[in-house]
Amino acid sequence: MRKRFILFLVLILVFSSIIIAEDTVTTQSTSTTKFTLNLDDLSRNFVQYSTNSYLDIISNFLTKYDYYFLVATPVVGYTVGYLTNDYKLKKVSEDAIISSAISGGIALLTKIVVGRERPYAEEGSLSFNPFAPLTQGATYTSFPSGHSTIAWSVYTPYAKEYSWWIYIIPTTISFSRIYEDVHWLSDVVTGSFLGYYTASYVYYF
User: Fold this and answer.
1) Count of CB atoms within 10 A of residue 201's CB?
2) Do residues 143 and 184 touch, judged by C-beta distance below 8 A?
3) Strand pairing partners for 142?
4) What angle do CA 64, 70, 71 make, to 5 degrees?
5) Using CA atoms, how far apart are residues 4 and 14, in angstroms rounded to an integer?
6) Which of 101, 201, 184, 172 is nearest to 144 (CA)?
7) CA-CA distance, 163 to 23, in Å (whole number)?
8) Where is the secretion signal located (predicted)?
9) How far apart are CA 107 and CA 205, in angstroms?
10) pLDDT per residue over 90-125, tens digit each?
11) Nearest 5°: CA angle at 48, between 45 and 54?
């Protein structure tokens, strides 16, 4: 019950800030300096002004090798569990694969329907073009974050079974999506919750 209440508050906070915000553009403003007082714009500006070489290395590494973190981990885990008769490892790896497939499908469908423009397009956090991904490509596939969705789907079963420290991996991957300027905060938050709760349902049921 407490988890549901916290989730409800977070979603209300994030999405209300998007809905009620208005662009404030001065005569000196350009498309690259346009600023709105909502969490998406605030977080983007904060991250852009907080970059450093260490974060660059981590973020670039996660972006370059995302396949291994998001796909290879559960496949290798299932294979090792099967070959060594480790039922627990096999089970959580299977849960990771199933939950990532379910949540990934939901995320993909939502991306197409919502058609939110990515931050680097510099059109603002309120730029939506429903079904644009079908004709205009990945620029309009910002919401929700697919990487965050899959990351939390994959690693949640392992974290529940072995150690909560494992949550550091999807958290870092999610942050890297904002750091790389390919997703807004609300994209990442929504994707993370989608992945986490889908994986939790699969894990327990």
Assistant:
1) 13
2) yes
3) none
4) 105
5) 15
6) 184
7) 43
8) 1-21
9) 21
10) 999 999 999 999 999 999 999 999 999 999 998 889
11) 145
